[in-house]
Each structure stands twice: as C-alpha cells, then as structure tokens.
C-alpha cells in the first residue's frame, strides 16, 4: 500500500505544480485509483473526477465508448482503453485522464485474454493518447492484479504529466 500511496502523492504534487487536473476511467480497478488519489489530503486541487465503468453499458453511457467497438474489440482491449480515457476527458474538465480495463480474475480469462491482462491509456486534452499493456501473473490474485494495475496507472500518469508544460499565466 505504501507504494500506491507514494505514487499518488507524487502525482498530485506534480499536477498541482503544473496546474493539471486529472480524471480516471476505471473498470477492473473498480475505483481504486480514484480512492488512492482522494486518500491524500488536498487532492481536490488536482483530482477532478472518476468514472467507475465496470459494465460495458457504463462504458457506453458514461464515457461514450461505442458499443460496436466493445463488440468488435472486446472490453479488454487497447481500442477500448483509449476510448475510455478519451471519453473521460470529453465528460470532464480534466487535462489528463487514465483508463484501466482488464481481467483481474480469478475467472473470466480466455486464451486470447487471460487473467492478468490489463490495458491502460492516458489521454491528454491537447495531445496524444498513449497506451500500455501489462500481463500480470495470475498468482498475484485478484487483489494483487488490481493493486499493481493502479500503480502502473499512476506511474503512466506521472510520466505523462512530467512532459506537460505548466499552465501559462492568463
């Protein structure tokens, strides 16, 4: 837990310094990233909102992920992760949004999409959307996969936020 907390503190400090607001779009982490961020006092200076879109319908309704994309690519895919992050930006006032969609287990995996497969995306309001894929060891268990996914997501946000210029004085 300490690593998750330290990453959340690091990200929030960086975003506060740069004037960057954050949003999360979470499926397999079930709000764990948003919880890690909001556990930190003063997080409201950088954390704008979080979407927990566990079901496909929630992805469609709250993030405008096209149903056809989910039907063709599957909810656990690069395309859906990208659409989730971009949808979180479109439905918020954030500058950066992270999405996570995966198979945390212990069941639900297939040969093509095994337990431990997680897709991440970070979308920038005025920039590109990046993607990462991780395959966690199923022996981590559901809790471990979700925790490690949250850490990867926070690291991805930190790396992206470091590349952003600070807000210009208006």
TrEMBL record:
Locate the CinA C-terminal domain: which residues? 10-159
Query: Which is a Pfam family this sequence falls into?
Result: CinA
Superkingdom of this entry's organism?
Answer: Bacteria
Which InterPro entries does the record cross-reference, listed alphabetically?
CinA-like_C, CinA_C
| Transmembrane residue ranges | none
**UniProt name for this protein:** Nicotinamide-nucleotide amidase
- Which organism encodes this protein? Afifella marina DSM 2698
């Amino acid at each position: 837990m300490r690593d998750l907390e330290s990453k959340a503190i690091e990200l929030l400090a960086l975003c506060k310094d740069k004037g960057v607001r954050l949003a999360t779009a979470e499926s397999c982490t079930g709000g764990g990233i948003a919880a890690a961020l909001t556990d930190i006092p003063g997080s409201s200076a950088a954390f704008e909102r979080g979407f927990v879109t566990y079901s496909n319908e929630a992805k469609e309704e709250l993030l405008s992920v096209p149903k056809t994309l989910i039907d063709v690519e599957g909810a656990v895919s690069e395309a859906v992760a990208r659409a989730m992050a971009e949808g979180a930006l479109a439905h918020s006032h954030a500058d950066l949004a992270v999405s996570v969609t995966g198979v945390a287990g212990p069941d639900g995996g297939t040969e093509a999409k095994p337990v431990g497969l997680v897709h991440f995306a970070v979308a920038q309001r005025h920039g590109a959307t990046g993607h990462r894929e991780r395959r966690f060891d199923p022996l981590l268990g559901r809790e471990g996969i979700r925790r490690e996914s949250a850490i990867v997501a926070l690291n991805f946000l930190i790396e992206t936020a470091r590349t952003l210029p600070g807000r210009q004085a208006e």
